[in-house]
Structures are given as C-alpha cells and as structure tokens.
Write a structure and sequence with these properties.
single chain, 407 residues, alpha+beta, Cytochrome p450, five-stranded mixed beta sheet, three-stranded antiparallel beta sheet, 12 strands, binds protoporphyrin IX containing FE, metal-binding, monooxygenase, monooxygenase activity, Cytochrome P450
Length: 407
C-alpha cells in the first residue's frame, strides 16, 4: 500500500489540523484497505462504517490478552489493558447486554435532562468570571471545566477532586489516542491508572455504607439487587464514565464554537433563531466529531466493501470520515446548522451507541447557546487555535476569543 494513505499520516501537524482532505482521498482511492503500518483494515465510507458498527461478527472485545502483550514486549502495558477489560466498550453480546441494561437504569435520559438547570448554573458561573476580562480561552475557561464538573456531580465524587480526576483521565485518554504501542508518558499513565482504581474503590466503599442520590449509589443499588456486577466491573466502568464523560464533551463545546465562528453566516443564524440550537449541535457533532474513530475485531472471516477480512483482524472505523462522506451528506464540508437528515455517527451506532449522548447534547446546547446569547459580538482573537496531538479525540488545545465590544 502507498504509505501516503497510511493512518500514520494523521499525526502530521497539517493533517491533524484538517484531516478531511486526507479522509476524502481515502474514500476515493481506498475506502476499505489494509494499512500495514497500523496493522488493521481502515474503513471510511458512511455505509460501511454504519454497517460494521451493527455487525455482530465484528466484536468490541479487541484487547490483546496479557500473554500476547508480553510476547510483543508490551508487558508494561498490562495494567492499562487490565482497566479497559470489562468496560462496556470492550465487551459484547450477553455480557454487554447485562451490564448495559444495568448502567441504562442508573444513567437515564431523564437524569440528563434533570441536570439541565445545574448545567446552566455552572455555565453562568464560568462565564461571569470571563465577562469582565473581555476575552477568554474557550477551552480553559468553559469547555474544560464544565464537563468534568458535571460528571463529578453525576457520579457523586467531590467537586474539589476534579483537577485530580482530570489529570488521571487525561493520562488515561492519551493511551487511547495514539498509534504508538508504548506511550511516552507511560510512567505517569501507570500511576494515574492505579490511583484512579484505588480512588473509586474507596468511594464505592463509602457509598455502600452511606448511599446518596448519585450515579455510583444507583449502580451499587442495582448491583445489590441483581448481584450482576462485580466490584472490579463497577470500578472499571466508573473510570470509563469519567474518561468518556468529559474529554469528548469538552471537544464538542470548543470545536462547536470554533466552527460557528469560522462560518459567520451560520453564527448570525444561530444568534437570531433560538429554536435552531438542537439541530446546530448535531451539525457540530457531524462536522468536527470529537471521537474520530473506533475499532472492532472480526470474530469470523467476513467481507466488507468487497474485501475479505480474516478472523481476528482489526477494522478501524473512522466516524470522522463517514460523517463527511459526500455519498451520505450533500456538500459534506459545508457547515449548515439547519441540515436535515443528519444521522451522523459521532455517538457511534447500534449496541454500543454512546450511553452519555443525552447528557452531552444538553451540555453542548446550554454551553454554546449561553455563550452566543451573552456575547453576541464573540469573535476569534488574533492568536490562532491549536489542535491537540490526539488523532482519535479531536479537540483544540486552546482557543482564544474576544467577548467585548472593542475592535
Ligand atoms: C460510547 C462518543 C459523551 C459515555 C461512545 C461511542 C462513541 C461516543 C462514538 C461508541 C464507541 C464504539 O462504538 O466503539 C461520545 C461523544 C461524546 C460522548 C462524541 C460527547 C460529545 C459521553 C458522555 C458519557 C459517555 C457525557 C458519560 C457520562 C459513554 C459510554 C460508552 C460510550 C459509557 C460505551 C457504551 C457501550 O459500549 O455500550 N461514546 N461520547 N459518552 N460513551 Fe460516549
């Protein structure tokens, strides 16, 4: 295969900043192809990505077992893989159905909607502090602190611990966004993973003795009724909720505001039509998807797009590309906040569809609408935004805007 088509190119700063021309090239030249550099099939077309996400022959149980890690010289990664094991995202079929049903019970769309006024209060507080300054870094001042505060509240962990939670979770997420086998910050990741496990173990113990009205207590109650979830599963899935619950939402908010400012006519529309917010958030999710890809492992030989995938081979499904597929979305590189028929794959699809989608949508809606209402003169600062060096979790490292009326 031509190395210029390898996913390794995504780490080049220019492609990281704007991966879409590269995705379009893949869609035209090799919509499903074997990438020898990442040792996986790569799939970029909407039809194939959506079909693969709902295909039971493609499993999310894709973690290498300890022996395989050791034989590849990756024994240092074993404690990290051990945390991922038994998380919703890495189990399938009856095991997944059992755990997902239980998490669904504790994590309802109603609970997310009930959080709306709390989310509004936190957004208002965060914006109060930037108003007098006349400028803000959208990532640092809003998109970063909001989701971690909300997920901390929902899980029922003390808000004072949120800097610590953020550091652990950032370390953990950095392993998931690199094609390198051993991360540069391995020592820090190992320490974070171990500390996070001990932290949730202790919190769960406290909630067992004194339940509260929070997600961890609800999960414990479900566990005690049905005895269906072990302590280790509980800890690992709290870590998943923490990591999945804030990183991606941070990026929805910052990427969304950035895109709105890049398309001034859409920003004007957003400002004048308050009913458009829900549809605008969907378009932001499609246009700059915070989770760019996922992967699956073939349980059997199967065919995708005319290619034979062998049992045990891995397929990388790029939702970020599928969401810009011209065969599915007319004029896909145009950002249109009133786009109809916008069934993007930003939250995945089928059995593993994002558990937190309702919450993420409410957070995005409240945050972005409040910014627009309070700062109608919002505009980009001279300092250009920079993208984070993570090819999976797509987000800005910093993004400076002016919120005042001076020129
Ligand atoms: C699953 C994206 C916010 C919790 C997923 C998947 C995607 C995704 C693409 C499916 C992955 C796959 O099939 O391999 C996003 C995006 C978010 C977001 C773009 C924000 C804009 C959240 C929030 C939470 C959350 C706020 C929780 C508080 C989860 C969980 C799963 C998941 C637990 C696993 C579901 C399962 O395997 O059954 N998310 N997510 N996510 N997400 Fe989210």
């Amino acid at each position: 295969m031509n190395s210029s088509l390898s996913l390794f190119n995504l780490m080049h700063p220019d492609i990281l900043a704007d991966p879409y021309p590269f995705y379009h090239r893949l869609q035209t030249e090799a919509p499903i192809h074997w990438d020898p550099y990442v040792k996986a099939w790569v799939c970029t077309s909407y039809t194939e990505v959506a079909a693969a996400l709902r295909d039971p022959r493609l499993s999310t149980e894709r973690l290498l077992p300890s022996e395989a890690l050791a034989s590849l010289g990756l024994q240092d990664m074993i404690p990290i893989y051990a945390v991922l094991e038994r998380q919703l995202l890495f189990i399938d079929h009856s095991d997944h159905t059992r755990l997902r049903a239980l998490m669904n019970r504790a994590f309802t769309a109603r609970r997310a909607e009930e959080m709306r006024s709390y989310i509004q209060r936190i957004v208002d507080q965060l914006l109060d502090t930037v108003e007098s300054r006349g400028s803000m870094d959208v990532v640092r001042d809003l998109a970063y602190p909001l989701p971690i505060t909300i997920i901390a509240e929902l899980l029922g962990v003390p808000v004072e611990d949120r800097e610590q939670l953020k550091k652990w979770s950032d370390d953990y997420a950095s392993v998931l966004g690199s094609f390198q086998s051993i991360p540069d910050n391995l020592a820090s990741v190992l320490q974070s993973v171990s500390e996070m496990g001990a932290y949730f173990d202790a919190i769960i113990l406290r909630r067992r003795q004194e339940p509260r009205d929070d997600l961890i207590s609800a999960l414990i109650a479900a566990q005690e009724t049905d005895n269906q979830i072990s302590q280790a599963e509980l800890i690992k899935n709290c870590i998943l909720l923490l990591a999945a619950g804030h990183e991606t939402t941070t990026n929805l908010i910052a990427n969304g505001i950035y895109t709105l400012l890049r398309f001034p006519e859409q920003k004007d529309r957003f400002l004048t039509d308050p009913t458009i917010v829900a549809s605008a958030i969907e378009e932001m999710l499609r246009y700059e998807s915070p989770a760019q890809y996922t992967s699956r492992k073939a349980l059997t030989d199967l065919e995708i797009g005319g290619q034979l995938i062998r049992q045990r081979q891995v397929v990388i499904l790029i939702m970020g590309a599928a969401n810009r597929d011209p065969a599915r979305f007319p004029d896909p590189d145009h950002f249109d906040i009133s786009r109809h028929d916008n069934k993007h794959l930003a939250f995945g699809y089928a059995a593993h569809f994002c558990l937190g989608a309702a919450l993420a949508r409410v957070e995005g809606q409240v945050a972005i609408q409040t910014v627009a209402q309070r700062f109608p003169l919002l505009r980009m600062d001279l300092q250009l935004p920079t993208w984070r060096e993570n090819v999976n979790v797509r987000g800005l490292a910093s993004f400076h805007v002016r919120v005042d009326s001076s020129a």
